[in-house]
Each structure stands twice: as structure tokens, then as C-alpha cells.
Amino acid sequence: MDEALQKKLKNYVLRLLARQEYSRRELILKLQQKEATSEFIDALLDWCEEHNFINEQRYVEGFVRRHIAKKHGLKRIQSEAMGKRIDRALLESVIESLEIDWFELAQDAYLKKYSNSQDDFDHKEKAKRVRYLMYRGFSYEQIDFAMQAQ
Prior knowledge:
Elements: H1 3-19, H2 24-33, H3 38-50, H4 56-69, H5 74-83, H6 88-98, H7 102-114, H8 123-135, H9 140-148
Helix pairs in contact: 2-3, 4-6, 7-9
């Protein structure tokens, strides 16, 4: 790789990181699409980590906070994290450090969706509401708590 291309790719990575957090893995994929060599990718990303432009802990915290803001449950967060190949131990430590009340989050998600609807509903409507909360990643206990609270 010539020096001009290396400089161009370095600027590309810095532009990406200026807009949002990326994991090391995501940046590797983006640089591979630009046909960078693996040696250059490793050196560039090591440099980014030295200067704290890439920080996996910070990335995972942002990832979890975004999902909590969307009112997603633990199962959904874990599933999406697996898709992004986030380290499971790091994810668990971040979730523990945030001390999230999953029951309250399930209740918030339920009330946001169904606060303006009728309180008495048939079995079919109840199943629909349970499916909605399950899709969002909540457990049966959390769903039951959320539906009782209305």
C-alpha cells in the first residue's frame, strides 16, 4: 500500500469515529471493504486504541444505553450483541454496572404502547401484547409484571 492510500484510509477511519462509536471489529470490516492490508489495519486500529479513539467498553456502554432508550429487554440486547459479536463478558459487566430495573423497563414499554387502549381485553389481545413484549426481549415474569401494572 502506498503512503497516500494509507493517509486516506486513516482519515476515513477518523471521520467515521468523529460521528459515532465503532467497535474494532466493525472498523476492520469497513477497512477490508476498502481493500486495506491486514497489517495496516492492525497498525491503524492499534494507533486508534492508543489515542483512545476506539474503546470497546465505551462502545458497549453506548450500545446498551441505546437499546434501553428504545425500551428493549435483556434478551433482545443480548441477541443484538451476538449479531455484532460483542464480547459476552464485557456486555454482562456493563449491564451489571448500569443496574437496570428490567421490570420497570418492561412496564414503561408496555405503557408507551398500550396506555391509551382499553383495560379489558380478550385472550387474543392479551396474546398479542405478550408477543409484543417478548419481541422486545422481556421475560415472562417481566411481561406479567408490566401487564398487571396497568
